[in-house]
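Exercise 3.2. Students should predict the tertiary structure of the chain below and write it as structure tokens, then compare their answer with the key that follows.

Predict this chain's 3D structure.
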Amino acid sequence: MLEPQASAPETVGDRVRQHILDVAEAQFAERGFFGASVRDVTDAAGVRLAAINYHFETKEELFRSVLLRRAEELGAERLQRLEGVATSGSKARRVRSIVEAFVHPVLSRALGNDQGWRNYFALVAQIASTRMWVLTLVAEDFNRTAMEFVGAFAKVFPRASKRKLHDAYQLMLSGTLYSFSNNGRLESLTRGDLRSDEYQVMCDDLVDFTSAGVIAICARTRGRDPGTRRGR
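Answer key:
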């Protein structure tokens, strides 16, 4: 029997690269892609510009690496959970298990001790609602996971239109991004009575709300989708 190969030991270069990614993640989350300069990152990380150039070459590649580092881990767990979702029972049960497969990996990380994950969620929520060209750098990596979830909804609602299935996914995504962005909006609305970082409560409500919404959208009788152009 072949023994599993041991992973290569972490080098000094690996540690420097991870440190730069951690710092860049926090800088981009706080200031945005355009607001945070490479100089800001090097100053906060305590490294020379040459280190950025060596490991990432450009600011765009640094930003892409920041996004993909955690996206790959998060996407892998989502897909693993998706493989185990309910395939029988009511539509409500099946949809809820799909929504939980998407949301719960975010919850576990938001509740954890790694501030980097919370920085990442704030960053992704910040850029998701923009038309930043830099999103094209990672679009295909995110699309692979997205299409698996669209496909899962299609199995539950085989008569739903392409538009409804994609709307269901997009609304699930946007609700998740906003819920875990910790943007302080609840504190402002309630004068501090409620907090944006009460992730468990927020997650329970998000799953209930999203599951009901997916069913409401996808279970409609198939017909002409609103906004579809009429033939002449």
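Discussion points: The longest helix spans residues 59-83. The two ends are 69 Å apart (CA to CA).
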